[in-house]
Amino acid sequence: MKLMDFLDTVSVDYELTRHRPTFTAQQMAAEEHVPGMNVAKPVVVNADGEHYMCVLPACCKIDFEMLKRHIGAREVNLSKESELSTLFEDCSLGAEPPFGRLYGMLTLMDSSLASDEYIVFQAGTHEDCIRMKMSEFKRLVEPRIVDFSYHTR
């Protein structure tokens, strides 16, 4: 798996945990006993033919109009499952880690996550989860931090 190989070769502290299978970021937050605002939900979009990884809190959704303005795209859509299975061959579908640069795409992180002390995310499977300091995540991923999400209830 690209992510684990990468994390094991760089100087970073992280915690890997296992839980019952979860299929949404909110389910993972509950299983890991962390607030949804600390769980990074990666969403891959296609903007004018180019893939971007958007990282936002589990309890939020993308405001596509805001996202279009930030990246200067005419059209932005969710990437199709068939595209995701090709982009993330080493991951279970729906359990992609929020490390766009490992998969050849720019990572956009919603500003609502940026000041969190730590971040929790899927590690490529529906059972594995990683927790690391936000400062380390930012150092490794070098995300572009912008506002593009809204909180759901």
CATH topology: YbaK protein
Strand order of the largest sheet: 5-2-3-6-9
Assign the structural class, choosing from mainly alpha, mainly beta, alpha/beta, alpha+beta, or little secondary structure: alpha+beta
Radius of gyration: 14 Å
The first-level CATH class name: Alpha Beta
User: How many strand segments?
Assistant: 10
Number of helices: 6
CATH architecture designation: Alpha-Beta Complex
Oligomerization state of this entry? single chain
Distance between the termini: 34 Å
What sort of overall outline do the alpha carbons produce when their principal axes are compared?
Answer: globular
SSE string: HEHEEEHEHEHEEHEE
Helix content: 25-40%
Question: If you average the pLDDT, what whole number results?
Answer: 94
Which regions have little confidence, pLDDT < 50, spanning 5+ residues?
A: none
Largest sheet: 5 strands, mixed
CATH superfamily: YbaK/aminoacyl-tRNA synthetase-associated domain
DSSP strand (E) fraction? 25-35%
Into how many domains do the coordinates divide? Answer: 1
